[in-house]
Design brief:
Structural class: alpha+beta
Domain Cyclic nucleotide-binding: 15-123
Strand order of the largest sheet: 1-8-3-6
Number of helices: 9
Order of helices and strands: HHEEEEEEHEEHHHHHH
Radius of gyration: 18 Å
Strand content: 15-25%
Shape: globular
CATH architecture of the domain at 2-117: Sandwich
Protein name: CRP-like cAMP-binding protein
CATH superfamily of the domain at 2-117: Jelly Rolls
InterPro entries: cNMP-bd_dom, cNMP-bd_dom_sf, RmlC-like_jellyroll
Pfam families: cNMP_binding
Number of strands: 8
Length: 196
């Protein structure tokens, strides 16, 4: 499992053999069954996970008792409740495996030690964190300002491998749409692609 993370890190920046040894020492491989929870509301998210295989969702339960999906994670993506991880406060989220999955976990203690011991690794993580924050802001802006058709088309373009792996009701939740609206948008998009 570690090879996938090492390949990913090599794509993102320069790490020395010493840096890679520190990463290997901090990493803990974990297999997770479909529908198994990595985190439940009220627990502290004391880990960061790098997805090697499979998929996950992070979601909250709203006042309406509906599930509201905040993020997905597939291969080469990171998963955690980052707010709970950074603050040490209990999470208001759940993280569930959508498929049988494999990930590499880093405990908060080992993660902090790794960042302190490897400036090269920290530089990679800082750049990834900035990109993640930007993507999160873009998604919020899209959900509050763009029509359903645009949100759906962006999702399909940005996440082509994810689109075919998760149920449509989860895509609707992620996009802030009802299932009925997503069905209508998909039909319209299908008609447009047939007429081209």
């Amino acid at each position: 499992m570690l090879e996938a993370l090492i390949d990913y890190l090599h794509e993102k920046g320069q790490l020395t053999p010493e840096d890679l040894e520190l990463v290997a020492q901090a990493a803990v491989p974990k297999r997770v069954r479909k529908q198994q929870y990595l985190l439940e509301e009220g627990e502290v998210s004391d880990f960061l996970g790098f997805v090697v295989k499979g998929s996950f969702r992070l979601f909250r339960i709203g006042a309406d008792q509906e599930e509201h999906i905040m993020r997905f994670a597939i291969e080469n993506w990171w998963i955690s409740d980052f707010i709970s991880f950074m603050s040490g406060q209990p999470s208001n989220c759940y993280i569930e495996a959508l498929e049988d999955s494999e990930l590499i976990r880093f405990s908060k203690e080992k993660w902090n030690e790794l960042l302190a011991a490897s400036p090269n690794f920290k530089q990679i993580i800082d750049a990834l964190t900035a990109r993640n924050f930007e993507a999160h802001q873009d998604r919020i802006f899209s959900n509050i300002s763009e029509p359903a058709e645009v949100r759906y088309e962006k999702f399909v373009q940005q996440y082509p491998t994810l689109y075919n792996r998760i149920p449509l009701y989860m895509i609707a939740s992620f996009l802030g749409l009802t299932r009925e609206t997503l069905s209508r948008v998909r039909k319209q998009a299908g008609k447009r692609s047939l007429s081209k």
